[in-house]
């Protein structure tokens, strides 16, 4: 048999010459060389060692082990004849770390003559697996689990040594029969060599004993009869005590295959179940009825029949039916490998790709005593099941144990999708839906909070703007009152004084009277301008005054000292007057009053404001001489103020009528419809 793990290492190293004369001064103990390979950072370096050849690869001759009093080491080369076993040699080559243990590669060697083989050390299976005897000659014993010939002179086998599985390889086989060695007690002497390590962490996983020949192998046949000739043992009694049992004793069982996964078959005889492991177990199909012979083993403190040999079973048919059991009863560890059914509410499901194709489904189920899982490997997609559904799952109960072997839980291995039955569908308000609903509500609350935040900022800005406008309006009102109470009153007094002076100077020269008239006209003009400015200031603050009050105050100011009597009436029916309408009505009223003061020669002016739910009407009348013709051809020109009134009425959608009233005098009437819903941008007047 070739040693696959040696070939890549051998091809990495150079030539060897048995004729080389290697200097003895460079020789270092093997233990010292092994220690050098562990120094960080590591670099390949040339080393020399001397020892006795303990094993030579008979297939290629390109690798051999040497051993000195401090330890053993693998040496590899590419070409040339190799040394002989029990020959003392001196080697020189490049030190490499190897997959697990250091190796001297690209080696040259010099034969120094025959020598006695190193003393054989007694080793257990556990000591071999932890690497304690790597490269050294050891002897161990155990029960042979399997054996086969790989070629005419090479046999490989598996030894159960101290609850560890150690493989061995015997060269130069002449008389050994592998079939007769199974279940025999054996003593094996050879060189401990690493076979497989775990990735880059260089952790030893498998070790093999390299045996030079039949002289290093001894066995004792312990089976007095073939286990196939013995009665089958019920699976429930397979691991119970019986006198004289040993680890090398094989067991004969029968049953029907329920499930196969990860190289393990699950067998059931209608009463109890058992896991079976071995090369032939990988090829089993669910539903097959078989007989099996194997060794009793424990994996994680749970029974398994290892290294089984399988034959078809032609005995009575076995009928299988899953036993319904509560989850708490499966947690006690007494139903491992049983074919059972258990119910639980689905909490979640995880479906992932499985090795070699297909899908791996894991269901998390809630029982009254806790949570357990059910696992299924399938080649097709499974039907979606909503979380919250009550399921019944039928399959193999796999007990889970802690470091002391006590049961801590269980999981279910399901043979096929038909093993899942929905007993009750999920209620509408499942945990998932409640979480979704909660998420939506939180989202709505977050949006509401954001809207409230931005609305609060906008309201704060509006309040600041309102406060500023109120302050401006208050200041404009104050200025209007000050002008009214001081400058306007003073101008009125001056106008009255000038009028009195004019009456007392009837016999004054014409030049004096003309200058006095011009002065009176200038004062009257200033009075009019001041009054206009006062109401311009007050109009900006309309949102803080009632429209009727503003019209009344305006009339009193306009006709102060003119001898014209003001009659004001107001009727309110609850309607709201937007700011735009109120401002234009005030301007129209102001223009109408100005016309009465300038042109009517009236003794009375009447102001009537009616506010209804759907409209507002303003009527201004006087008892003066009335208006001239307002036909289209006479509009405009001298009546520019009337045109402005028309434009304002049109702007706010009102109907304006200007004419003479019965009995004499002018009549101005405007009716404006009010909006049914107040605008946020308009303030009441």
Automatic annotation (TrEMBL):
Signal sequence annotation: 1-19
Domain Histidine kinase stretches: 585-676
PROSITE patterns noted in UniProt: HIS_KIN
Keywords: Kinase, Membrane, Signal, Transferase, Transmembrane, Transmembrane helix, Two-component regulatory system
TM ranges: 434-456
Entries under SMART domains matching the protein: HATPase_c (SM00387)
Stored Pfam families: HATPase_c, HisKA_3
Source species, domain of life: Bacteria
An MF annotation (GO) of this entry: kinase activity
InterPro entries in the cross-refs: HATPase_C_sf, HATPase_dom, His_kinase_dom, Sensor_HK_TwoCompSys, Sig_transdc_His_kin_sub3_dim/P
Stated name of the protein: Histidine kinase
């Amino acid at each position: 048999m070739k040693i696959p793990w040696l070939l890549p290492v051998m091809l990495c190293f150079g030539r060897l010459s048995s004729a080389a004369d290697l200097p003895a001064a460079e020789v270092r103990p093997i233990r010292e060389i092994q220690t050098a390979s562990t120094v960080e950072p590591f670099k390949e370096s040339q080393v020399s060692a001397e020892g006795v050849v303990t094993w030579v690869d008979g297939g290629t001759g390109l690798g051999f082990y040497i051993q000195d009093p401090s330890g053993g080491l693998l040496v590899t080369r590419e070409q040339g004849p190799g040394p002989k076993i029990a020959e003392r040699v001196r080697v020189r080559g490049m030190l490499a770390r190897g997959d697990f243990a250091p190796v001297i590669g690209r080696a040259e060697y010099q034969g120094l003559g025959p020598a006695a083989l190193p003393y054989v050390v007694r080793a257990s299976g556990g000591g071999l697996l932890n690497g304690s005897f790597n490269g050294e000659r050891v002897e161990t014993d155990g029960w042979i689990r399997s054996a086969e010939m790989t070629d005419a002179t090479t046999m490989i086998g598996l030894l159960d040594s101290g609850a560890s599985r150690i493989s061995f390889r015997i060269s130069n086989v002449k008389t050994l029969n592998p079939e007769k060695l199974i279940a025999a007690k054996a003593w094996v002497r050879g060189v401990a060599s690493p076979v497989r390590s775990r990735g880059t962490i260089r952790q030893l996983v498998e070790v093999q004993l390299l045996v030079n020949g039949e002289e290093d192998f001894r066995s004792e046949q312990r089976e007095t009869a073939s286990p196939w000739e013995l009665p089958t043992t019920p699976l429930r009694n397979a691991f119970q005590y019986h006198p004289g049992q040993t680890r090398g004793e094989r067991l004969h069982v029968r049953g029907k295959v329920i499930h196969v996964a990860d190289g393990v078959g699950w067998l059931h005889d209608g009463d109890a179940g058992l896991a079976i492991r071995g090369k032939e177990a990988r090829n089993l199909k669910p539903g097959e009825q078989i007989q099996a012979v194997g060794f009793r083993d424990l994996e994680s403190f749970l029974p398994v029949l290892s290294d089984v040999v399988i034959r078809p079973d032609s005995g009575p048919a076995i009928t299988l039916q899953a036993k319904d059991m509560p989850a708490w009863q499966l947690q006690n560890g007494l139903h491992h490998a049983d074919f059972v059914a258990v119910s639980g509410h689905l909490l979640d499901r995880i479906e992932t790709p499985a090795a070699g194709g297909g899908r791996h489904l894991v269901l998390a189920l809630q029982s009254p005593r806790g949570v357990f899982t059910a696992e299924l490997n399938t080649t097709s997609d499974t039907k979606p099941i909503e979380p919250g559904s009550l399921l019944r799952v039928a399959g193999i109960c796999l007990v889970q144990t802690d470091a002391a072997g006590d049961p801590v839980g269980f999981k279910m291995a399901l043979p096929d999708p038909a093993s899942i039955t929905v007993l009750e569908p999920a209620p509408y308000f499942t945990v998932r839906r409640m979480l979704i609903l909660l998420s939506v509500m939180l989202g709505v609350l977050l949006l509401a909070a954001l809207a409230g935040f931005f609305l609060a900022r906008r309201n704060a800005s509006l309040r600041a703007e309102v406060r500023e406008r109120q302050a401006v309006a208050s200041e404009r009102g104050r200025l209007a009152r000050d002008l009214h109470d001081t400058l306007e009153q003073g101008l009125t007094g001056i106008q009255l004084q000038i009028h009195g002076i004019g009456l007392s100077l009837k016999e004054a020269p014409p030049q004096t009277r003309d200058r006095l008239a011009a002065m009176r006209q200038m004062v009257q003009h200033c009075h009019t301008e001041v009054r206009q400015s006062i109401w311009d200031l007050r109009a900006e603050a309309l949102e803080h005054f009632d429209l009727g009050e503003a019209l009344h105050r305006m009339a009193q100011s306009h006709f102060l000292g003119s001898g014209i009597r003001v009659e004001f009436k107001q009727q309110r029916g609850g309607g709201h007057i937007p700011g735009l309408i109120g401002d234009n009505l005030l301007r129209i009223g102001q223009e109408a009053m100005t016309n009465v003061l300038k042109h009517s020669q009236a003794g009375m002016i009447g102001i009537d404001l009616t506010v209804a739910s759907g409209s507002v009407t303003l009527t201004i009348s006087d008892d003066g001489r009335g208006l001239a013709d307002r036909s289209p051809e006479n509009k405009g020109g001298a009546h520019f103020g009337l045109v402005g009134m028309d434009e304002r009425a049109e702007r706010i959608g009102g109907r304006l009528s200007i004419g003479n009233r019965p009995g004499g005098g002018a009549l101005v009437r405007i009716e404006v419809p009010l909006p049914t819903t107040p605008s946020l941008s308009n303030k009441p007047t």
